[in-house]
Amino acid sequence: MSTLINNVLDNLDLVAMLIAFNLMTYLAHRRARGEGSASQGLLDLPLWMAMGGVVGARLAFVAPELPQFFRHPLDLARINGGMYFYGALLGTMVPAWWSYKRGHLDFWRSADLYALYAPLAISAFRWSCLLVNRCYGDLADPPLGIRFPGLNLPRYPSELYEASILIGLFGVLMAVHSRKGRAGTTFLGFLIGYPIVRSLVDLTRIDFGSRWGASDIMISLGLALAAMGLLIYRNRIRRPGPDAWSSGGEVEAWAEARDRKLNA
């Protein structure tokens, strides 16, 4: 039993990541049932999203030092050696898009549901960083800095900054989602808001908080700008299909047409 406890404590960040993912999935599926949009494709998605997220996160983490991992390829499987959020984001989107192309899933509406609760999941994970004492920032004077266990000088509690701001982002996304605008708005809103929050918090981190260094901020801002452009484009271009939460009749017609195609 002591060995099991020690293993859990040594990999507490992975345990917290699993808990956060399951929290996001549970809340997204509960809301989908409440809104009448819980398709079988959505309910079957979490396992594939988790697998894609882990693979994408690990590959993105090792990418800056890929030649080193070519010499030691088994190190790629050490998921407790580090993962990168944007790789996880891309990895989770691959099975979702594949399911959408096969007609099993409405991509934009499903993405809205997961994106709505993603800030809460990330916030919960960041709180766990405080427990494992790994995500502290650069040196800082009080009151902005606090003294972490085992360290002599106060540092920015970067994980607490991000966790707190993300709760505010969740409130903003909830307000956006409640307006029942065009599908995809909540998802794109998350892709705008989270990178901005991450970029601001990264300024307090050591080496900007990842192996990508200053490039991480450029990636974040680039993603936010791309999402903003896509959001503007989608709101200006109207297309047939289940693009709006408020158009229940159109959504039902689209779903019936999809089912006839699959059963043909």
Please give a structural write-up.
The chain is mostly helical. It has one domain. It is about 70% helix and about 0% strand. It contains 11 helices and no strands. It has helices at about 1-10, 10-35, 40-45, 45-60, 65-70, 85-100, 105-130, 160-180, 185-200, 215-235, 250-264. The chain starts with a helix and ends with a helix.
From the N-terminal CA to the C-terminal CA, the straight-line distance is 55 Å
Average residue pLDDT: 81
Fraction in beta strands: under 5%
Instruction: Report the structural category.
Output: mainly alpha
Number of domains: 1
Q: How many β strands by DSSP?
A: 0
Shape: globular
The Rg value, from CA coordinates, equals 20 Å
Helical content stands at 55-70%
Q: What's the number of helices?
A: 11
Q: What order do the SSEs take from the amino end to the carboxyl end, as H and E?
A: HHHHHHHHHHH
Major beta sheet summary:
none
Poorly predicted regions are: 244-251
